[in-house]
Amino acid sequence: MSSTVPAQRPTAAFFDLDKTIIATSSAYAFGREFFNNGLISRQEAMELSLSKASYMFVGHSSEQMDTTRDSLRQMVAGWPIEEVRRITTETMRNVVTPAIYAEARDLIDFHRRQGHEVIIISASASILVEPIARELGVDTVVASEMEVVDGKLTGTITRYLKGGAKAEAITQFAASRGFDLANSYAYSDSATDIPMLEMVGNPVAVNPDRALRKHAMKNGWEVRTFRNPVPLIQMPNAREVGIGAGVVAGVTALTAFGLWLGQRLLREAKNQDSA
Question: 2 burial class (0-12, 13-18, 19+ CB within 10 angstroms)?
């Protein structure tokens, strides 16, 4: 009488993108290139830069993410989809590749060697996430989707993959591909992704914001710090956006304030964690 050994279910590794794999925001990373190619105005370029500075220094709450989504949705309405693909593909290695954390690359390679399926799951639009995934050799991307009509973006978001929507996507993956979620992994920097992290047996907080760090410590989750590369803020110069010295000075002052505020929040978080 022979016995049948059940086949081992596959393991997945789900990666958030911004501040987890890359030391920047994919939603803002191509802003300068979109300006250089005439897709956005100098005013919109400035707004993107200031929003990026705010995001990098102090992060975005769920409400701020929704505000950013609505602003970007209106901005891209009417853009030719092939032009966006061309710009992101041609400028990828100059704009985003230097911002990829070496630790994230190594971690993705580790999961591949273990036979795990690597999936990037992001609230950013898939058209921005896919070239980054190709750079990393990741075949599966789950991201927000935007409507395209007659070859142009309409500004309508057909799928917004934030918070609980990521957890729902993981549930769908587990059902369709038979993933063993108890042995699977998830990585993120943001408290908005706690529902996703709670879906797997190996949740990891990477460069966590204050709320996620607190939640991770309370629940005994692993916390990792990725430092290479050091996150950089690239502000548009006066030649690129045609602004006066007074505005440049104002942007510089705002950036300095953001740095001071970010450092202060980090100190307060450390003090509370040690209390």
Answer: exposed
